[in-house]
Amino acid sequence: MTTLNSPHPLDVTIVGGGMISHDLILPVVYHLQRTGMVNEINVCSLDAAPLKELKNSAMIREAFPGQDFNAHPAISDPEDNKYPDLYKEVIARMKPRQVVIVAMPDQLHYSVIMEALKNDQHILCVKPLVLKYEHTVEIEKMAYEKGLFIGVEYHKRFDRRALMAKKSYELNQLGEFVIGEAKMIEPYFYRSSNFQNWFTCDQTDPFVYVGCHYVDLVYFITGLKPVGVSVSGIKGKFPNGNEGYMWANGRVRFENDALLSVTDGLGYPDEGAGSNEQNLQMFFEGPGKSGMIKHDDQFRGVQHAYLEGIGCGGSSFNFVSPDFFQLIPWEGKGLKPSGYGYESVAATVEMAHKIETEVLTLSEVESLKKRQQIIREADEKGIIATPANSYINELVVEAARLSILNDGDMVTIEYGPHPKIELRGTMP
Asked: Are 195 and 107 within 8 A, CB to CB?
């Protein structure tokens, strides 16, 4: 979809300068800038420290020589100065119908999204979109009325193996999903990162933070809606003394009575060979036989042993994933991002660009009709996660938070005209 020297490039503002911006979002946006899809890039953060790290990143400099972004606040600003509302000023100065990327802690998504919509901006948000279903409905309605596209960065929808499984399920080659288990354990060193300032018991937990990827993936593959959630957590202390859920286990029941167990945590050994531990196994039943898929996402068949340790914890032996995100040599300057992580971020920016390109010569009335048509088509296609086709995640997240704060009691999800959650007690 990306073309060189693309007409009508869009300005992009990234709100949040942390790890996800460094490891994925900024490299993708930089590449879209050099292909002509993106024009000016702004990155806004609470203070100057993460912006200075982005500017000085050896990895980013090597991959994107000569490219830069506008830092808000300036990197020369004292790091003790905090600007919690600076993003509002930056977004307000943008031309209408550009792109805002929300890369903030989960509990801050809603306020940033609403600010972007108020200023008529397309949006890409890291998952989960928000923590309450009613906010999803509000966001979807407001964006559709304005003809603005919102993508949620559930990047596993772009993984080839997930797309293959989705196709096979739709063709009834696997049978009906009955039971499965998923796991995503992030590195231990996350505990010493900025996580310790926001990943607290009252705000989030590992199931909400990363387990939502696999709940969304099962829904993406099967189309089955979750109807019950039970999540239990194990607390621990961050280095700064804040208490958070370091581990969580969830059990999700789907509308056909299928069950998915999801184990998550901040505890993959820093010295381990992989960057994390993540996998999915699903079992299916058909006439007189069963089916199965097994995705070992942390091990994709590539093993490297380096002279010096370069892994997350400095390990020399690594399970290297070529599939999610890598910066690799290409025919142009620097390095090129590749993988389904790149495609997921790029897809939303490209969708916003597609909308703005196709309405250039239309009247205001016809422009809105065309915008809404493209949004509906993306909702129905279901590859890019949108508020309309991924809303089950907000119900699951809301149910999960209620459950984990009630010692793992089961929370049911009811659909219909006005979906809601309800605390029911122990999971049967």
From this structure: no
Classify 160-323 by CATH class.
alpha beta
- Lowest mean pLDDT across 144-148, 200-204, 273-277, 380-384: 273-277
The pLDDT tens digits of the residues spanning 84-137 come to 999 999 999 999 999 999 999 999 999 999 999 999 999 999 999 999 999 999
CA contacts within 13 A on the Cβ side of 220? 27
| CATH homologous superfamily of 10-156+330-389 | NAD(P)-binding Rossmann-like Domain (3.40.50.720)
CB neighbours of residue 127 within 10 Å:
21
Would the pLDDT of 6 be above 80?
Answer: no
Contact 278, 200 (CB under 8 A): no
